[in-house]
Amino acid sequence: MTEKFIKKCCLAACVLFAFGMPLVVHSPTYLHISIMLLLFAYMTTSWNLVGGFAGVLPLGHSVFVGIGAYTSTILWLQYSISPWIGMLVGGVLSGIVGFLIGKPTLKMRGAYFALSTMAFVEGVRVVVENLPYLGPFKLNGPRGLNIPPIEAGHNDFFAFQFAGKEPYYYIILTMLVAVLALTWYVSRSKLGYSLIAGGEEPEAAEALGVNVAKCKVWAMVMSAFLTSLAGTFMAQLTLFIYPKSVLTLDLSFELAFIALIGGRGSIAGPVIGALLLRPVSEFSRIYLSDSLPGMHLILYGVILIVVMLLQPSGLTDPLTKKFNAIVKFIAKKTNKKKDFNDEYA
Q1: Quick one: 286 exposed, middle or buried, by C-beta within 10 A (0-12, 13-18, 19+)?
Q2: What is the gyration radius of the CA atoms in the chain, in angstroms?
Q3: pLDDT digits (tens, 9 = 90+) for 291-342
Q4: Which of 77, 189, 224, 300 is the most exposed place for a label (fewest CB within 10 A)?
Q5: How far apart are CA 62 and CA 125, in angstroms?
Q6: 317 burial class (0-12, 13-18, 19+ CB within 10 angstroms)?
Q7: 79-128, pLDDT tens digit by residue?
Q8: Beta-sheet strands, E only, within the chain
Q9: The dihedral sign for the CA sequence 192, 194, 198, 204
């Protein structure tokens, strides 16, 4: 038995577990926690395309979540256009906004880029909070928008509303698998190599003919489009959006925390980070939100400090080494047993 075969078996087992979990877990609370875990793994993986591979630190990705949530919700409430179509429209709008933001700001170095993205998302939030209408589109200011639920106990795929949690679980799981596959493809493409080279040594990459600025802008556009899809999913899951829920710096910080702790620039890092941090966030919100609101961000900060002191590159590297050692041990033991059986057969 080869190490490659064992790794494929482990991957297949993880996929089977992920897709089969709702068949054995029927608690709405645990299903909701699982959905949020997958949602943040998806958003952080989207963030990782520019925040990980391009070597910059964007802290304004919640603006794309907000664009996706508001676009699909307004199109549904005012024009009866399915949120599935609104999701794509929001994604295209976010891609355009990502291009307009990234074109001038991605040339900045260090903290200037992070600060400019923070300023942008705060500016958009203040505008949305103070505008009841944007042209013909109703934003409803700080009160946000309610999505009327369909008849209780019924599913409506066109309206992106379902009676139980299971359909939402499978939708976001499918989105996560798709964005992981895209990240894997990008990491092995010319764009991925250019982003990594430009993120680590931009001067050297440019000297070799790599258009670093152009690659980073394309990464930003892709990241904005994908992150925006999560905004529509979030709106349809909660059926209520308001500026401080989808256009907040807290959300942007959380994505960066998850990526940094899991391991930015790696494919598995965002998933590992979400697996570790989202349960902390969900349980702190369930049990501490009344007495200590925002406690999950303090816990994230403590965990981030510890991880950065012990593993500056995140937890992916040590966990990968441990996993490879276990796989090697199993392969060695299995092959020894096979050789023994063949010898005395």
Answers
A1: exposed
A2: 22
A3: 666 676 777 778 878 888 888 888 888 888 888 899 888 888 777 766 666 6
A4: 189
A5: 10
A6: middle
A7: 999 999 999 999 999 999 999 999 888 888 778 888 889 999 999 999 99
A8: 133-134, 137-138, 145-146, 240-241
A9: positive
